[in-house]
Design a protein that fits this description.
3-stranded antiparallel β-sheet; alpha/beta; 8 strands
């Protein structure tokens, strides 16, 4: 469960205890879900959807690199530093894959440099590194005793959008809920 979702759910439950919030798994947004419930809204990366689905940019989610403090291959690099590009591409990588693919935005950025990475889908431990959204890294860094590094290449920051059925564009309750979500996310300090 994302830090964004937990913060939104916490604020909604305090201000409106009878509102039930449900999080769908990422990349499972279907138009039926937005049609089938009175308040249908979801946080998701940009998607190609029908014209009747409304959306608004909520925040950007730049990548950082996380790794265990016990990773000997990068022990000399200070937390917050940058792993050299050649080393970064040779290290074993973990990837969060919501659709089963073994590549993503980091791979596209590496490809533009003529490089590729070794994705194993293992958790970030030992000698693995992982490119994750900065918000996730901040949320788990202390608890998992991780080091966080800047990517050695420019990786486009994914946008996270708020989607809803356009029939609710002017609905006062829906406007209030969307406003609450936008305010909550802005208070978390996420880049827009």
């Amino acid at each position: 469960m994302s830090a964004t979702w937990l913060a939104c759910r916490s604020i909604v439950s305090k201000s409106s205890p009878r509102v039930i919030a449900r999080q769908w798994a990422p990349a499972t947004l279907s138009t039926r879900k937005l049609c089938g419930i009175p308040f249908g809204a979801t946080l998701e990366r940009p998607l190609e959807l029908p014209d009747w689905v409304s959306s608004a940019l909520l925040f950007q989610s730049p990548f950082v690199i996380i790794a265990s403090r016990n990773n000997e291959a990068i022990a000399a690099i200070p937390d917050g530093g940058q792993i050299p590009l050649d080393l970064f591409s040779r290290l074993p990588h973990a990837i969060r894959s919501i659709d089963g693919t073994l590549s993503g935005m980091v791979d596209e950025a590496l490809k533009s440099h003529g490089l590729r990475r070794n994705v194993t889908l293992a958790v970030a431990a030992g000698s693995h590194v992982a490119a994750v959204p900065v918000q996730f890294a901040r949320a788990v860094k202390a608890q998992l005793d991780l080091m966080v590094f800047e990517p050695p290449i420019d990786v486009p920051a994914p946008h996270v959008n708020l989607y809803w059925h356009s029939r609710y564009d002017q609905d006062r309750a829906h406007l209030w809920m969307r406003s609450l979500i936008v305010t909550t996310v802005s208070e978390l300090g996420f880049p827009i």
